[in-house]
C-alpha cells in the first residue's frame, strides 16, 4: 500500500538515473496531476536527457507504472510484533502516515485519478496494492497459526479491511486521518476477523 518518504535506492549509474527520473515524476504528479505529466519536463527536473526518458519509458503511463513498482519495492516492510492487533496497527499507521504526508497524499490522489480514466494506470495501481497486500498478509497467517483467528481466514481480506476506512477518509469523507482513526481501523479488522467475518466460504 505505501511508500516510505525519503527512501534511498542502491545501485550504479542506471539505478541513479532511474531514481532521479522517478523522483522527478513523483514531484510532477504531486504538483500537476497525471493529465499534465510531461516526459520532457520530467527529464529536465531529473537533470537527464529527454532521449533517455523517452527511450526507457516512452509514455506517461509507463512512467507512472514504473513509479508505482518502485514505490512498492521501497515501502517499509511489514513488522512482526507477535500479536495481530499490534501488527495491524503498524500497518494502519503506515497507511495513515503515507496518506497524511503532504507530497505523498498529492501523488496518490494523482495516481488514483489517472487510474479512474486510464486502463494501464489502473493496472499499475492494482499491481502496487497487490504487492503491498502480499507483504502484509503473512502477519495474518501467523495469527491464524497462533490461534488468534479462525482457520480459513482470508489474510488478504483482513489486510484490505485495515486500509479501506483510511482511504475512505482520504478520498471521500474528508474526516481526520489521525492516529485514533488508524487504531480503530486495525482494531475493527481484528474484531471482525475473530468473529469469522473473513473466513472463506
UniProtKB/TrEMBL annotation:
GO terms for molecular function: DNA-binding transcription factor activity; transcription cis-regulatory region binding. The keyword Cytoplasm does not apply. Residues 15-75 form the HTH tetR-type domain. SUPFAM superfamilies: Homeodomain-like, Tetracyclin repressor-like, C-terminal domain. Residues 38-57 bind DNA. Transmembrane segments: none annotated. Keywords: DNA-binding, Transcription, Transcription regulation. It holds the Pfam family TetR_C_11. The keyword Oxidoreductase does not apply. InterPro entries: Homeodomain-like_sf, HTH-type_TetR-like_transc_reg, HTH_TetR, Tet_transcr_reg_TetR-rel_C_sf, TetR_C. This is DNA-binding transcriptional regulator, AcrR family.
